[in-house]
Amino acid sequence: xxxxxxxxxxxxxxxxxxxxxxxxxxxxxxxxxxxxxxxxxxxxxxxxxxxxxxxxxxxxxxxxxxxxxxxxxxxxxxxxxxxxxxxxxxxxxxxxxxxxxxxxxxxxxxxxxxxxxxxxxxxxxxxxxxxxxxxxxxxxxxxxxxxxxxx
Length: 151
Description:
By secondary structure, the chain is mainly α. It has helices at 4-7, 9-27, 31-44, 53-68, 72-86, 93-105, 109-123, 133-149. It comes from Paenibacillus nuruki.
């Protein structure tokens, strides 16, 4: 995934500044303002959007706002976009965790487990750091149940 700054430094700097404004609004719980800034930054990304390094960051920022609002349907949409940008890199476990969280919170626990498993396979329990412990607990409980059933 190429860095936009390598191709267009001024555009990259401009997008980063806008996202940082959105982050400040998000920290202040001004979620509509944050989403407006993230959308503004998203719309500046050149096509193909999933091609750039900033794509996952902007999409994940939107995921975070929607999760704070408990709008897991919108969070899921943006989590999938973030994942699309990093799908070939298993090191991006947080993108997989975010998709899993949105599935979990909308009641699709089977799908949530699948995404948590992918993250766990690469990062172990460390992949869940920074997320509510309930997601790791959910994953490990299901994993333990599966293990017991195969014995």
